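Tokens for MOSC domain-containing protein. Go.
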Amino acid sequence: MGQGQVVAVSRHAGHDFSKTNQESIALIVGEGVAGDAHRGRTVQHRSRVAKDPSQPNLRQVHLIHAELFGELRAGGFDVAPGALGENVTTRGLDLLALPTGSRLRIGADAIVEVTGLRNPCRQIDGFQPGLMAAVLDRDAAGGLVRKAGVMAIVLAAGEIRPGDPIEVTLPPAPYRPLVPV
């Protein structure tokens, strides 16, 4: 499926919408990004905690393709790495086309497994009005396309930084398409 590259890495200790770009971030097995509000073995997103705090955290690491930012800027939105709450901004990978269970080796040691799509929430319109509609689309059959990135869990720890390569390993066939997690 090819190779991509890390454009930016971000984290934020609070439950704010955007995350701050960093020189590097550390991934912790089964938990997520060190120093990030969404790190944990069980759900950390406030809406999910309110429903059932014992659910496993399938949203430990949020990845977005930088190509989306160009598309959004062309639509008049001001977005940059970390602005949409992602931990890892990538280039050169069609993240949305990956099947569930795809593994991404990022840098020398870190490995994450893609669990599903990020389902954009209403907070995105609070960041910039109209942005929610801009990260949603329809495919040729009329199905909803969520373009706000993918979520993953950490399988192997490691430090990652901008410029690191990303190598994709697909799961065994038959492939399961990504669904919101």
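Residues 3-169 form a domain with the M1 Pyruvate Kinase; Domain 3 fold (CATH 2.40.33.20).
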